[in-house]
Write a structure and sequence with these properties.
The complex is a heterodimer of chains A (222) and B (326).
Chain A lengths: L3 H26 L28 H4 L1 E5 L9 H4 L8 E5 L35 E7 L2 E6 L9 H9 L4 E5 L11 H5 L5 E5 L7 E2 L12 E2 L3
Antiparallel strand pairs in A: 1-6, 2-5, 3-4, 7-8
Chain B lengths: L1 H26 L13 H6 L7 E8 L5 E6 L5 E12 L5 E10 L2 E4 L5 E4 L4 E4 L5 E4 L9 E6 L3 E6 L4 E6 L4 E5 L20 E3 L5 E5 L4 E5 L5 E5 L17 E4 L5 E5 L4 E5 L5 E6 L13 E3 L5 E5 L4 E7 L7
Antiparallel strand pairs in B: 1-23, 2-3, 3-4, 5-6, 6-7, 7-8, 9-10, 10-11, 11-12, 13-14, 14-15, 15-16, 17-18, 18-19, 19-20, 21-22, 22-23
The complex binds iron/sulfur cluster (3 copies).
């Protein structure tokens, strides 16, 4: 019969190991938003999360579906093929690239004579783009995601006539992160791929000095 | 026996089911089908039915990685620059020299001795016609992207798309004044530059013209910054400028007519010296879809030289009636 001291030592070891296991498991499986440590401390949003030696929270180590706007050919299937209705793909506006143009190629139907917000002048089939006067001659365009169906019509207009600041993206607050994304399977441009959840967007940025003299936009992983 | 049949039947059904799933998952081909939200750029481009008064007589394949800028110099020599180098051709389009540098040249003008003045992004460099660097002017500042250059007897004019202003320098790179900054007192509305397209040129009679692409206008300025005239209208009709930022490039013919190029609906047109539309040079059908950056130059014979960065060619257009002479 083990003596009392041995029993207590075994108990202590078992408790210690269990504690370690629980702590390790919590470290690995802890939840947390991308860019945060996930320990539930008051986050100082130091912006150094990527350099942190502690492994990223479980959720932000996951992979999610995203589409690369530089490959997208605006075929319209992002609007129809998603398992969600309306689609989890939405138009995103990269304001840093926008020219705040009066005659916006993404907002107005081609050939529109009067540049006002009349519904018949708008390119968007759901009137999801809002135009607001900033100062002469600049206008700001915002997307009402609750109306956007991800059809990409505005994106094509902006690409052709503007700077390409309107871009399609999978919105992860709506996306089911299907094992096999229904759009990825049929996208004719192969624009879909899996990206780490902590860098969930693949927006194109505008380079001030484009390399190789290519004045199209360079891609930026944000 | 009956059990065996049942077993094989079930197995067969399972195989069919698996095959169906495999086909559905991996082999079904993309069916773009009818896109109810199609933005029909093609129909819009085909609406440009006016017959071009010009025709292309030559397409010179360039050896440069990315073609960006073009200019003509003494003896109607043709100069092009882009990513990592420059090329010089004689007027018969024979390559005379190609030389390399590390940067990308975003704009080019050539002086009367054949030296190349090139924008390397935020500053200007001068190289001679044998490919030797002669001079580096000081940077225009952080955020600067110089997209057009022009020289006169004593002035260097610099269009900076990054900082949305035109600089008036002397040939040594000393700033004389800035042109085009918003100034309600002098009735200068300011440049609206939504993207890296901002061109300027000096006309054969020596006047300075600057594109204001966000306003779809060409504006004339005095060298001291006084705004004089402007013309241009937005729209998709041929005489107008389409999209949100056009004309992206322009230059002058020897008679003072303007030659303009646009992106979005790729087209090159000629306007008389008072800004009245006069002829079509090229229409969208002449370019690959999405071509942008159609920099322009002209020579003493009135030929229009166009940089086509997608086809990596210098394309030369001449007036139809003069085709036989070229
Ligand atoms: S399916 Fe592909 S090509 Fe079509 S709109 Fe979506 S990302 Fe673009
Ligand atoms: S045009 Fe299509 S993609 Fe653009 S905002 Fe409207 S619904 Fe969204
Ligand atoms: S993963 Fe699923 S929910 Fe998300 S975009 Fe693809 S089909 Fe839609």
């Amino acid at each position: 019969m083990p003596n009392r001291r041995e029993f207590l030592t075994t108990l202590f070891r078992a408790a210690f190991l269990t504690g370690l296991g629980v702590l390790g498991g919590a470290m690995v499986l802890r939840k947390g938003k991308p860019g945060e440590c996930g320990f539930g401390f008051d986050c100082a949003h130091c912006g150094e999360a990527d350099k942190c030696v502690i492994p990223h929270p479980f959720e932000s180590r996951q992979m999610v579906w995203q589409l690369d706007p530089s490959l997208c050919t605006h075929c319209g299937q992002c609007a129809t093929a998603c398992v969600m209705t309306p689609s989890a793909v939405k138009c995103v506006h990269v304001y840093a690239m926008c020219g705040y143009c009066d005659l916006c190629g993404g907002y107005f139907k081609p050939g529109t004579k009067t540049l006002d917000t009349a519904a018949e002048n708008q390119l968007c089939p759901t009137n999801a783009i809002k135009r607001k006067f900033v100062e002469e001659p600049f206008f700001e365009y915002t997307i009402d995601e609750s109306l956007c169906i991800g059809c990409g019509k505005c994106v094509k207009g902006c690409d052709a006539f503007g700077n390409g600041s309107l871009q399609l993206q999978v919105r992860h607050d709506r996306c089911k992160n299907c094992n096999q994304c229904a759009i990825a399977r049929i996208c004719p441009s192969g624009a879909y791929r899996k990206v780490p959840a902590r860098h969930p967007s693949l927006l194109r940025g505008f380079e001030q000095k484009p390399k190789n003299g290519d004045f199209t936009q360079s891609q930026e992983n944000r | 026996m009956k059990q065996k049949t049942l077993l094989f039947g079930a197995l067969g059904m399972l195989v069919v089911l698996i095959l169906f799933m495999v086909k559905d998952l991996f082999l079904s081909s993309p069916e773009p089908g009818n896109n109810p939200w199609k933005y029909d750029l093609e129909t819009m481009k085909q609406a440009d039915t006016m017959k071009p008064a010009y025709t292309m007589v030559k397409a010179i394949p360039s050896g440069l990685q990315g073609l960006v800028a073009i200019a003509t110099g003494p003896g109607d020599r043709i100069y092009t620059t882009g990513a990592g180098g420059a090329e010089i051709y004689d007027s018969a389009c024979r390559l005379l020299l190609r030389f390399d540098f590390e940067d990308t040249a975003y704009a080019l003008t050539v002086d009367s001795t054949g030296n190349l003045w090139m924008s390397m992004g935020d500053h200007v460099e001068v190289w001679n016609k044998t490919g030797k660097k002669l001079q580096t002017l000081k940077s225009a500042g952080r955020g600067s992207l110089i997209t057009s250059l022009a020289l006169t007897g004593s002035s260097l004019l610099i269009a900076d798309a990054g900082l949305k202003v035109v600089y008036h320098y002397d040939h040594m790179g000393n700033m004389i004044n800035r042109i085009g900054e918003k100034d309600p007192v002098r009735k200068v509305p300011g440049f609206v530059i939504p993207g890296p397209w901002f061109d300027l040129a000096v006309s054969p009679d020596g006047s300075l013209w600057i594109a204001n692409p966000g306003r779809h206008e060409l504006e004339q300025y005095r060298f001291d910054g006084q705004r004089l005239l402007s013309w241009g209208k937005p729209g998709i009709g041929i005489p107008e400028f389409c999209g949100c930022c056009n004309p992206s490039h322009f230059t002058f013919l020897p008679d003072g007519s303007f030659v303009t190029s646009e992106k979005g609906i790729e087209r090159i047109k000629v306007y008389n010296p008072r800004g009245k539309f006069s002829a079509v040079v090229a229409l969208p059908g002449d370019f690959d879809e999405g071509t942008r950056g159609l920099d322009l130059a002209t020579d003493s014979r009135g030929r229009i030289l166009v940089v086509d960065p997608v086809r990596k060619q210098i394309r030369i257009f001449v007036k139809r009636s003069t085709t036989s002479n070229n």
